[in-house]
Amino acid sequence: MEFEETFRLALNSLKSNKIRSLLTMLGIIIGVASVILLVSIGSGLQSYISQQFEELGANLIMVMPGKVQFSDEGGREGGPPGAVNNKLTLKTVRTLEKEGQYVKSVLPIVTKSLVAKFGRESHQTGIVASTEKYISIRKQDLAEGSNFTKADISRGKRVAILGPTLKEEIFGDQESLGKKIMLGDARYTVIGIFTEKGAAFGQDQDDMALIPITAASKQFNIENLAYIYVESPTADDTVKTAAEVEKILLKEMDEEDFTVMDSKDLLSSITQILGVLTVALGGIAGISLLVGGIGIMNIMLVSVTERTKEIGLRKAVGAKEKDILTQFIIEAVFLSITGGLIGIIIGYLGSAILGNFLKTAVTPWSIGLAFGVSAAIGTVFGVAPAAKASKLDPIEALRYE
Amino acid sequence: MKDKIVVKVSDVKKYFPLDGVTVKALKSCNLNIAQGEMVSIMGPSGSGKSTLMNLIGCLDKPTEGKISINKRGTENLEADDLAQIRNEEIGFVFQNFNLLPRMTALDNVELPLIYAGIKRNRRRKIAQEKLEAVGLANRLHHYPNQLSGGQQQRVAIARALVNNPKIIIADEPTGNLDTKAGMEIMKILKNLHRQGNTIIIVTHDLYIAKKSQRIIKLKDGVIDNGI
Fold it and tell me: Which residues form the MacB-like periplasmic core domain (chain A) (predicted)?
């Protein structure tokens, strides 16, 4: 008998029992969908974090005061928490600029949270104080207005570039360029507005104002820097640059006084952790695939018993063992593959819907794996019932009630 | 016998193990059935007539002795070869019809043709012809539960005929039918016989048996008048 005929037979017998076929597939559907969904959440997280680092700049090195392993973005003000003897100053920046061969540029950063006011509107926000290089190094764009000039920085001129959130909060729809706002107790002139950047690490990056570091150190009487960005010429040089920065700094201070963080190091260790997490999530979901497979075997066994008489009759009119065997295997494989396909669609849609709330990425390997496993499950768990069916004695089977 | 022999049963014995005891269902049976004959096998229950029918129908193999179907010995054949003989040489009609409930009359009749490897379009055509021949031209797409008992048995007869078998074996074909439907079925079988088909009816009903040319009586696993 031709394969096509066997396939049609199998399909017809599944069609004649739609509800049961669907329920049998449900195990596989849920298994495949959850594998795809969980892996997509894991991979999404991974790519989200890589992207964040990429935005930060793969060729950026961060120098922080004190000795820290991993620091979160909170506690910017005056560096990481704890009693740290902060020795990073503008002088350090100048030394690095002068002595570093693998240093393209150096960006001092001071941060402070304060209240911004315009007219009657006020808003709690944060300032970032830096130089005119900030915009190019942090890859930010201006929606309107212009960047600081070198003169603004050297003279400590009170000018500010606002993030769109802050602008919206205190100006609303009004024109803001050239207007004077209060940042803390000093008056600053708005000279530019950043383009929207969105949230990173759960923080609104657009709720801020950038001011010249010189103006900030005068206004707040701050000597020390929150951290320093060092840009290396290319992303491949970051390791060399980091080593050089460390060498230069060690001449001026102790090992405990600073931390040089290479974004690549941090990124690779984070993505590695997330990778393990993703596989673990997928594995847990994989267990439900296995359970789904056992469900298929169970139903196929029941189906063989229930259809004993049918098998007997098929044999009586000339079905060979192979015909019965293939029919039942095809039924099982068809159930699991169809279940797998439906699961893929549901997993894909589910991750698209979840994508509205958090970043997801459906990976081809998770689809391939889920589909392969479901097809394999159908075959493996279909063989035993099919073999049982094909070996039935036609006389016994016909007599079965 | 001057006619060609299509079923030859020689010294056939069939023993079954049952709870550690050997049940001798058939003890040395000899039987010849000629081409075109209409034969009834009769006997009380437990006489071994079902066993004999299963052996002739190639559903089972004898413990001892030889059975030839259309001059072909069956004793050395594997399960799949027997399946092929059943497919090509034998048509079964069962007491309880044995139609597949989720298939239409046409699909049921097509079943043996599927296993014979005949293409779909031809299958449809042949199956339709056979159903028309048993008077079910207007019931092709009905399911078994939409048909009366007599109609179901006619579908089963069409199925038995569909491969143009050498032998039609009918096991109590009227056993589940009322008298009128039973008579109709016997009329169809008589007609088939008249057209030259070899028909073996297994029954315990003397009235039915008398419709055939020859009655073979089985008692305690022994045939009285097989040859």
Answer: 21-247
- Best mutation target, A317, A391, A392, to test chain B (most B CBs within 10 A): A317
Instruction: Search chain B and give the residue with CA nearest A309.
Output: B98
Q: State which residues form the domain around B122.
A: 5-223
pTM for the model stands at 0.69
Task: Tell me how far apart the alpha carbons of residues B167 and A109 are, in angstroms, rounded to a whole number.
Answer: 100
- Spatial distance between the Cα atoms of B204 and B40, rounded to a whole number of angstroms: 9
B79: contact with A, CB 8 A cutoff = yes
Q: Which of A2, A316, A321 sits opposite B92 (nearest CB)?
A: A316
| Radius of gyration for chain B, computed over Cα atoms and rounded to the nearest angstrom | 17
Choice among A339-343, A373-377, A393-397, B187-191 with the minimum mean pLDDT: A373-377
Are the C-beta atoms of residues A222 and A77 closer than 8 Å to each other?
A: no
DSSP string covering B85-97, please? HHHHHEEEE-TT-
CATH of the domain at B16: 3.40.50.300
Residues A211-236: tens digit of each pLDDT: 999 999 889 888 888 889 898 887 77
Tell whether the torsion through CA atoms of A203, A209, A214 and A219 is positive or negative. negative
Q: Are B3 and B35 in contact (CB under 8 A)?
A: yes
In chain B, the number of structural domains is: 1
**Angstroms from B29 CA to nearest CA on chain A:** 20
This complex has an ipTM of: 0.92
